[in-house]
């Protein structure tokens, strides 16, 4: 444009300023901002807000303060967007008190907090677990003209659950109904978690049943309830809830299968666990994670024959055991203290993968153990167990 002797507009320079800031080239951005007035441009709030955003992204809050302090002297006035950008950055940096102070300064300048301002403050309060303040802000939403929906309630309810204020979660649910705000599946999931943690499993199950009149029951809601019963040791209810889930045509996922399978193993019903796992196999494959999970139970309780039976049945169905299953088996044995010697299971495991698993174990032990000592191996161990 300059070569063609065309005078760029201020928005064009603002776009260049934004590019500098996005690349963290703040010296170039500041130089451009300082040069433009001498070229006859009157810088507006948009250009300064773009630069302020760049300073915030770099964590240079002192420079932001200087920019705002001399704004009037420089001939521009911050607007609500400017303060929202600054408050949001302060919240992300964990400077909650300073974010609220900036909102106060915003009001002192005669600027009314916008819906975006309230969203930022609410998110900041929840992130910092200032749940009492977040609750007061939410309860005063009508007076502030702040239109809230289930998302905001779900966010606060989740934080209340995290900090252990379980009764407050249920109070917020009542507040939602009172204000006519319809709950969604996420709302009911948080409530189910709360009731399960409080030991109110019957009430949690009732929520799943009655929640269907508001939203379609989904796998997450059922998984939450299943986990609640399993954690409480009520494994018989796990089976009943699972059957109810299927009756409502809710499709299980791997987490569902894992809970049900674990509930069988927890009662020592390994034959039922194996049958359940085999029944979950799809026509085009099976879950390696679930096979590894069940094998870990077998190893833990010394059920080596069950390992043979499972892998034999998989082979009969055309599913060949692979290195992933081999690794998970070695991991399971190592967790039980048998890494030093393979003699313990040599006789029993000999010949269960392509005619000779033990030869594979001996051949690949060094490579597998090297893998298990790696970060990726440790992550996999944590995932399984």
From TrEMBL:
Q: Which domain of life is it from?
A: Eukaryota
Annotated PPR repeat ranges: 44-78, 79-113, 149-183, 218-252, 253-288
Enumerate the PROSITE patterns for this protein. PPR
- Which of UniProt's keywords are assigned here? Repeat, Transit peptide
- InterPro entries from the entry? PPR_rpt (IPR002885), TPR-like_helical_dom_sf (IPR011990)
Query: Sorted alphabetically, which Pfam families does this protein's record hold?
Result: PPR (PF01535), PPR_2 (PF13041)
Please state which protein family the record places this protein in: Belongs to the PPR family. P subfamily.
The entry's protein name is: Pentatricopeptide repeat-containing protein, mitochondrial
The organism encoding this protein is: Ananas comosus
